[in-house]
Design goal:
It comes from Hymenobacter armeniacus. By secondary structure, the chain is of the alpha/beta class. It has 16 helices and 11 strands. It is globular and about 70 Å long. The two termini are 38 Å apart.
């Protein structure tokens, strides 16, 4: 009989103690998920985030979401008064497909908790909520233009030039990418010039308060999103892994900027898919020349400063779409394929949930070679999952800890209608 994996029981938030102890003094904690539509991944990440904030002083959560939408949530949870009606109403801002990723009742509960927590903190210590992603080209340009019009400063001309350059393509970045794919005339110089101007303006200005400084930071971040989104959509049209790398490098750059904004010793929590937070060097992504935020954070901050937690389950249900931009559905998640990481844990644990720590797994005989590890994205076809949803992984190196949840259920989306012009995606797990 093969030796068992060392595990710790996982039934309630108190059982996360071994993970908290293993995290120690790490500055960045990356919390993954094996799908973008599973209730338990959201609730256990919430439970762990609450403890990191309350017990270890973590100062913000950065998520795999758009900067403008998340910054709206960030501003709301730092206010004393509730001016947005309810958390569910606030989350209607997430109207880009897949709307359910952040527009769901599970995030609504987290938002309410963050607001209550912040009420007990001084303004400088209130926990933030930020988006790390790169998709929001048009929305970010609009936000920059609105900010500089209010400020009336020297960035207004640069903002208008960038805005007008993209205007013929309306809100459709795909149309822009197709139009400039084979010509030299594009908007790269305009957005790069805007970012330079924004940074020059910020360097010469003193800010009276943290909220004022954060607003200026947000405007500059929107300019950075425009620069990298312009690169992303052109790279996406060319194909290959370059668009993936543009996206994850942008997420890492945003995380580093946020750590700098919050000062020396600041601590960050990141919520993103396992394919982003689990070190790419220990998967087949390395063969394709792809990097991710899990790898980049370890390389740039030092491995001892970064703690990555993977998530997975054996069977259950999930919210996803059959195609990119398709209506969301509640789908059955079949039992994990034989010999996969999830199947092995199910066989050992017989229906129980567990925490596994990589420090205790590293020398295990069954984990010296890559094992298939399930990845479900916003696009999912259960009947075909064995052909493209298992990522070969060296589990103890890809993550620092793993939360196994034997049977999981679909999360609970808010009734949000997605906007048109959904950017396509090239990855089989919908990432």
């Amino acid at each position: 009989m093969a030796p068992a994996f060392p595990t710790h029981p996982l039934r309630q938030a108190a059982d996360l103690g071994p993970v908290l102890a293993a995290i120690g003094d790490a500055r960045v904690v990356l919390l993954g998920e094996a799908s973008h539509g599973t209730h338990e991944y959201y609730t256990w990440r919430t439970a762990l985030s609450k403890r990191l904030i309350s017990e270890k002083g973590f100062q913000f959560i950065g998520v795999e979401g758009d900067w403008p939408d998340c910054f709206e949530v960030n501003a709301a949870i730092k206010q004393d008064a509730v001016t947005y009606g309810s958390a569910a109403q606030l989350l209607q801002t997430f109207n880009r497909w897949p709307t359910w990723m952040w527009g769901n009742w599970e995030i609504s509960a987290l938002v309410e908790w963050l607001h209550r927590h912040n009420l007990s903190q001084p303004a400088a210590r209130r926990v933030g909520f930020y988006g790390l992603d790169v998709y929001s080209l048009w929305e970010s340009l609009q936000a920059v233009l609105h900010y500089v019009e209010q400020q009336g400063d020297g960035a207004l001309t640069a903002a208008r030039h960038a805005f007008h350059c993209f205007e013929p393509y309306s809100a459709d970045p795909q149309q822009y990418a197709r139009a400039v794919a084979f010509v030299s005339e594009d908007c790269q110089d305009e957005v790069a010039g805007l970012l330079r101007t924004m940074r020059r303006q910020a360097a010469g200005r003193a800010y009276a308060s943290l909220p004022e400084r954060e607003q200026a930071f947000a405007a500059e971040q929107n300019a950075l999103v425009a620069v990298n989104a312009e690169r992303y959509y052109k790279a996406m049209l060319r194909g290959g892994g370059s668009s993936w790398n543009v996206r994850d490098r942008h997420m890492m750059e945003t995380l580093a900027r946020l750590l700098e904004l919050h000062g020396p010793g600041s601590k960050a929590i990141v919520w993103a898919h396992n394919t982003h937070v689990g070190d790419a060097r220990y998967t087949d992504m390395r063969r394709d020349g792809e990097v991710n935020i899990g790898q980049l954070a370890r390389e740039q901050l030092g491995r001892e400063q970064v703690f990555s937690v993977g998530f997975g389950s054996y069977e259950g249900s999930v919210v996803a779409g059959k195609d990119w931009g398709a209506p969301r559905e509640k789908m059955a998640v079949p039992r994990a394929v034989r010999a996969s990481w999830e199947h092995q844990l199910h066989e050992q644990l017989r229906g129980d949930n567990a925490v596994l720590l990589s420090a205790e797994l590293r020398n295990h005989s069954r984990l010296q070679q890559p094992v298939g590890h399930r990845a479900i994205g916003v696009v999912y076809r259960p009947q075909f999952e064995q052909f493209g949803n298992y990522v070969p992984s060296l589990i103890p190196e890809r993550y620092d800890a793993f939360l196994f949840l034997d049977r999981t259920q679909a999360l609970h989306p808010l009734p949000t209608t997605p906007q048109p012009n959904v950017p396509p995606d090239l990855y089989p797990w919908g990432e």
